[in-house]
Specification:
50% helix; 7-stranded mixed β-sheet; Nuclear Transport Factor 2, Chain: A; alpha+beta
Length: 244
């Protein structure tokens, strides 16, 4: 009896492994959904990247567990967007079909490159690494009846996964903060975009004058020199640490 049940479960759940360039277009779109979600930096991109998520979508990572659905997942993405974005390089894709539950899971082994954002007005960000590569596995679960993503799961090779209660508390705190602050941040984002466009238009007009253009070039050169100096300091510090 137990053997028959196990055989039936195995028959109901099949798994196929392929390289990313050899998967069906539907699977490629699922992988792209995750890649777009992690790489989204501005609000419009985040809205577009989270549109394929189900209303009850769960986001499960070593850092937080968000069970409040698509709205909370989107709000947390917008809350963290100013800090960094992630580039995802898939290497192996496993497609798992669950015929009884009418769901499909796509497991993707690959490399996540976390790219910290650097700001000229925040000198501490100048010393951040250009990127931090992390190997891991991403799982995307899809409901067959509405083609919506019900689960985004991340597991990394060198990062332990804390107990689910701690991750749920972190996800609840980040999700609640994101949902509460989203309208305020959106308004600030609108003001910043409008102000930046106005200032940029004024700079373009004024920069047509030779004296102003020369001053702008000098400022750009100074900024590049500061960045080069920061890189030099980091290299020397790394050399001293290595020598010790």
């Amino acid at each position: 009896m137990a053997t028959a049940t196990s055989d039936g479960a195995a028959a109901a759940r099949t798994s196929v492994a392929k390289v990313p360039t050899d998967v069906q277009p539907e699977i490629a779109r699922l992988v792209q959904t995750f890649s777009s979600y992690k790489a989204a930096g501005d609000w419009a991109a985040i809205d577009g990247a989270t549109r394929p998520l189900d209303e009850d979508c769960v986001y499960d990572s070593p850092f937080m567990y968000i069970s409040g659905g698509r709205d909370r997942v989107r709000a947390v993405a917008k809350l963290l967007a100013p800090l960094a974005y992630t580039e995802f390089e898939p290497k192996l894709v496993r497609v798992c079909m669950d015929n009884t539950g009418r769901e499909a899971e796509v497991e993707v082994d690959g490399t996540l490159r976390v790219v910290p954002r650097k700001y000229w007005w925040a000198p501490v960000t100048w010393f951040l690494p250009s990127s931090v590569p992390v190997d891991g596995t991403v799982t995307v679960r899809v409901k067959s009846w509405n083609d919506k993503v019900s689960l985004l799961k991340e597991r990394f090779a060198n990062i332990p996964t804390p107990p689910v209660l701690l991750r749920w508390l972190a996800g609840w705190g980040a999700g609640t903060t994101g949902v509460i602050m989203e309208p305020l941040i959106y308004k600030l984002y609108e003001w910043f975009s409008a102000g930046y466009s106005s200032v940029q238009g004024g700079v373009d007009q004024v920069s047509r004058y030779p004296a102003v253009a020369k001053a702008v070039d000098a400022a750009d050169g100074m900024r590049e020199n500061l960045a080069a100096t920061a890189d030099s300091v980091k290299a020397k510090a790394a050399g001293l640490v290595g020598a010790q």
